[in-house]
Design brief:
Elements lengths: L3 H8 L6 E5 L3 E7 H10 L9 E9 L2 E5 L2 E5 L3 E5 L5 E6 L4 E8 H5 L12 H6 L4 E3 L2 H18 L7 H22 L1 H4 L6 H16 L6 H8 L3 H12 L3 H17 L6 H7 L5 H12 L3 H6 L1
Antiparallel strand pairs: 1-2, 2-8, 3-6, 3-8, 4-5, 4-7, 6-9
Length: about 300
């Protein structure tokens, strides 16, 4: 089943210029700047993890998205892939924004693979996991859109005797076409050689994703990477414009906002989950970076 965000995709039926839904497990919709604003009425722009694989294609304009603490600008002919493990934050879209969304629930996505002994049919999304945004040329983008349109046509054939089977085949073909386009791109077929600093930057991001809730000190990450705290901060500043401390603070704020928007978790539990010594310390940290207290943020 879909979570709050993907439930909101279902709620966008009237705002979307085109909308198709198969049992709330597969949703395809076309959007523009106005429907994106409508989406924000259903879901505040707060960091979230989704129980779905979400693909966002941009046909016109641009959309700012933050995935796992990294900001991306998705513009014309780009495809953004959001995995269930990703922490995602939707920011601003341009006035001429147009695009589409394909959302597939996590449980349904698992049914699109072969048996455990065989290679998954959705190899493309596995390979794209490490690089969530890809820019296509116009021919590639239109080819992928045609594959999406084929999935949509099968969802609309409600009277088909093999309805579910045809949708599954169409989805598998979509991912095969995506994999074909992706793997034929030279930069993806030949893995780029990373410099030592780029490797350290990537390793730091992975460590931060796994440990930010428990580990707030720069020294922890520097020790794990076998470098000094000063060298780590200088690398991060060079690669991203942010120091190690800023990266950690940003990650903590994203996790805090995500949890504070979960009704069943109170502020004390968020403080404990993020390994702050007490709720007061957490409150001061949050207000310093958000401008409001955790309690006020929850009500906003």
């Amino acid at each position: 089943m879909f979570d709050k965000f993907t439930d909101s995709l279902i709620s966008l039926k009237e705002a979307a210029s085109s909308y198709d839904n198969y049992q709330n497990d597969v949703v395809i919709l076309e959007f523009d700047a106005s429907s994106l604003n409508e989406l924000k009425n259903f879901v505040p722009s707060n960091p979230s993890r989704f129980e779905a694989v979400i693909l966002i294609g941009i046909s016109e304009g641009e959309l700012e998205i933050q995935i796992d603490y990294v900001a991306y600008k998705a513009d014309k002919y780009s495809l953004t892939l959001i995995m269930p493990t990703h922490i995602t934050y939707f920011e601003e879209g341009s006035n001429n924004l147009k695009g589409w969304v394909l959302a597939i629930s996590k449980s349904y996505m698992e049914t699109l693979s072969y048996s455990r002994e065989q290679q998954p049919i959705v190899i493309s999304y596995i390979q794209l996991k490490k690089d969530p945004l890809t820019v296509f040329n116009i021919i590639e983008y239109k080819s992928l859109y045609s594959s999406l349109d084929f999935v949509r046509s099968k969802i609309r054939q409600h009277a088909h005797l093999f309805y579910k089977e045809t949708i599954n085949i169409a989805l598998k073909m979509f991912f095969l076409d995506l994999g074909n386009i992706y793997l034929n791109k030279k930069e993806h077929f030949i893995p780029p050689t990373l410099s030592r600093k780029e490797e350290l930057f990537t390793d730091f991001q992975n460590l931060l994703r796994e440990n930010c809730k428990e580990q707030h000190e720069v020294k922890f990450y520097a020790d794990k990477l076998c470098i000094t705290t000063q060298y780590l901060s200088s690398i991060l500043k060079e690669q991203s414009g942010k120091s190690a401390g800023q990266w950690i603070q940003n990650a903590l704020m994203i996790e805090a906002k995500r949890m504070l928007k979960t009704p069943r978790i109170n502020v004390q539990q968020v403080s404990n989950e993020l390994n702050f010594p007490d709720q007061s310390t957490f409150g001061k940290f949050f207000k310093k970076h958000a401008g409001v207290s955790p309690a006020v943020f929850r009500k906003s």
